[in-house]
Amino acid sequence: MFNNKIEQVYFYVKLSRLACLYNIQYRSNDSYGTKQPKMFSNMTGDLREDRRIQKTKKLLADSLGQLMREKEYDAITIQDIIDKANVGRSTFYAHYESKENLLLHNINFQRELIHFTSNDAQHPMEINLPYLFNHLSEYGAILKAIHGTAIAYQIADHFIAIMVNRIVGYYKRRPMPPGMEKQLLQYRAEAVAGGIVRMVFCWVMDDTPIPASKMIAQAQELLAEAFPFDNRE
C-alpha cells in the first residue's frame, strides 16, 4: 500500500487528525480503554416492557422523527416533541432524560453492539466492517439531520470506542507486534478507528455514491495495513 516510509507516516498523521476531530470521550484509567462510553452504558433496556410503554416510546420516537423532517435537530425542543406526541412532560421524562437519549435509544445500539463485533474469522480482527457500513447507511436521514451537532460526534465516538476495544482486545490475546508499546497501540487504534468511522460517515452523507463492497474493501485494507492480523488463535 505504501511506496515508502514517508507515505506511511503521512497516512497515520492523517488518520490521527481525523480521530482527534471526534474528541473521543471513552478513555478511562484502563490503559487499554476497554470501557464503553458512559452515556451508552445503561442502554440495555427492559426486553419485557409492557405494550403500553412500548407504544409510548414508539410515539415519542415517531414524533421526533417527524420533527427532524420539519426543522433542524438543534432547534427541536422537548416541548415540540411532547406537543407532537400529545403526551405530558412527565411522561417523556419517565422514559428519557433528553432528546439525545431518545434519539440514541432508537438508533438501536444494542443490536449493533451484538453484530458489530464478530467471532467470524473472515472479519479482520473480528470487527464486522460490513455491518458498520450497512448499519449506518440505514440511518442516513438521521445522520444528515444531526450532522455537525454534538450528538453526531457522540455517535461517532461510540463506534470508534467499540472498534478500539476490539483491536486492543485482539492483542491482549496475542503477542504485541514488534516494537509496539501498549500506549502506542492505543493511539494507533484510535487513529485507525477514527479514520474508518469518518470514512463511513462521509460516505453516508454523500448518499453512498460508491458501492458498499468497495468501501468495505478500503476499510479492511486500512485496518490490515495498520495492524497485520491473523485470526487464528
UniProtKB/TrEMBL annotation:
Pfam families (UniProt xref): TetR_N
Cross-referenced PROSITE patterns: HTH_TETR_2 (PS50977)
GO MF terms, alphabetically ordered: DNA binding
Key words of the record: DNA-binding
Domain HTH tetR-type: 54-114
Entry's transmembrane regions: none
DNA-binding segment(s): 77-96
Name of protein: HTH tetR-type domain-containing protein
Organism: Niastella yeongjuensis
